[in-house]
Amino acid sequence: MSTGFFGDIAKIKYEGPDSDNPFAFKHYNPDEVVLGKPLKDHLRFAVAYWHSLAWEGGDPFGGRTFERPWHDGGMDKAKIKADVAFELFTLLGAPYYCFHDADVRPEGANFAESTKNLNEIVDYFAKKQEETGMKLLWGTANLFTHRRFMSGASTNPDPEVFAYSAATIKTCMDATMKLGGENYVLWGGREGYETLLNTDMGREFDQMARMLHMVVEYKHKIGFKGAILVEPKPQEPSKHQYDYDVATVYGFLQKHGLEKEVKMNIEQGHAILAGHTFEHELALARTLGIFGSIDMNRNDYQSGWDTDQFPNNVPEMALAYLEVLKAGGFTTGGTNFDAKVRRQSIDPADLLHGHIGGMDACARGLKAAARMLEDGALQKPLDERYAGWNSDVAKKMLAGEMTLSDIAAMVEKEDINPQPKSGRQEYLENIVNKYV
C-alpha cells in the first residue's frame, strides 16, 4: 500500500547499463549469479532507519532542512514513519533494514514509557515484516544522543547511567530477537573521553568489559542465534573513543576473553578516520577471525569528519568486497547503508537516488572482486612472493625446530646473502584497474 510519500514512483527494477531511467538499477541485478549464488545473497543489502528516516538534515551550523510528515509527533507519527520506511525498503527491493531504538519510537518521560513505546513499534514492525517479507539485519541501542549519555554509557562515572544503559540494551536485544534480527550491534559513540584530566581509563575499561560480558551472557540466556557485533570508530563525537579500530577492539576482546563471542561491524568512513583503508580493516578482521558485517558509506576526503555519504568509488569497493569474499562472504552480516543524502537533497526521490547509486556501485565492486578472485589475478603474484616459505628449512624455522643459534650457523655456513625482490606495486595496481 502506497503512503503517497514517494508519489507514483514504482518498484526499482534492473534495466541494465544502457538504461537512462533514473529510477532503475544499471548494475545491480539481484538474481544475477556470481560465484555460484545470486548477487542479492552476496550483498545482503540493508537500509539504515536512522539516516534515511530519522535524520532531519541538520548540521553543526543549521537545523532541519527536511520536511517529513512524521516530524514532531508521538506514536501516530512514529507509525507514519514506519509506513514510509517499509515503502522505501520495498521500492528498493533491499531485503533488510537496521535501526536504533531512538530512531523508531518517541522518547518517553521515563525508561518504562520509552520501553512501552519501543514495544508498540516492534509489534507494528512485525506486522510490516510479515506483509512485505522484509527482515531485520540488526538492531541496536542509541546510547549517545540523549544528554544523559554525554559522559558515556557503560563507561559513565555515574552507576545510574550504567544501569540505565544496561536496561536499554536488554530491551533492544529483546526487540531484535522478536523481529528475527540476525545480529545485534554495539557502537560506543560516547565510550571514550574528552580529557584525561577527569578520566579514570582503567575503571572505564572494566565497566565496558562488564557490560559486554552481560550482553553475551544475555544473548545465550534468551537463545539469540545471531552475532554480537562491535562497530569501531576512533573519534567524533568523543575526542577519543575506546573502540578505535579493529586491532584495538580485538586486543580488548582478547584481554577479557570475548574474542570467540564478538565480531566486528566495520564502516568505511570510520576506517578512514582511524587512518586506515576500508580493506585494511576488513583484511585484519578476516585474519583475526572476527569479521561480521559492514556499513557501506564514504567520507568526503576534504573534510576531517564522518560525512556518511553514499558509496560511489568502485575501485575502493572492489578491494573491500575482495576481502569479504576471501572471508567466505557474509553469514549473518550484510551491507548496511549507514549513509545519508546531502542536506540540500530535500526531495523524497533523493532517498531513492542515493540508494540506487550505492547499490549499483556495490554490485560493480563485488562483481569486479569476484572476477579477480576467480582468475587468481592477485593471488598468483601473492603466492609467488611468499613461495620461499614453502621450503623445508623455512617451515622448520616457523615450526620452532630451529633456534636463533641454529639459524645463525646456517646463514654463515651456506653464505646466505639475500637480495631484495620487487614488490611490483604498480603492476598490481594495474591489475586491479583492469577489473574495475
UniProtKB/TrEMBL annotation:
It is an enzyme of class 5 (isomerase). Keywords: Carbohydrate metabolism, Cytoplasm, Isomerase, Magnesium, Metal-binding, Xylose metabolism. It is found in: Cytoplasm. Mg(2+) 1 binds at E231, E267, D295, D338. It catalyses: alpha-D-xylose = alpha-D-xylulofuranose. The active site is at H100, D103. GO terms for cellular component: cytoplasm. Its EC number is 5.3.1.5. Mg(2+) 2 binds at E267, H270, D306, D308. Belongs to the xylose isomerase family. It comes from Martelella endophytica. The gene is xylA. Binds 2 magnesium ions per subunit. PANTHER family: PTHR48408, XYLOSE ISOMERASE (PTHR48408:SF1). One of its GO terms (molecular function) is xylose isomerase activity. The lineage of its organism: Bacteria, Pseudomonadati, Pseudomonadota, Alphaproteobacteria, Hyphomicrobiales. Homotetramer. One of its GO terms (biological process) is D-xylose metabolic process. This is Xylose isomerase. Its cofactor is Mg(2+).
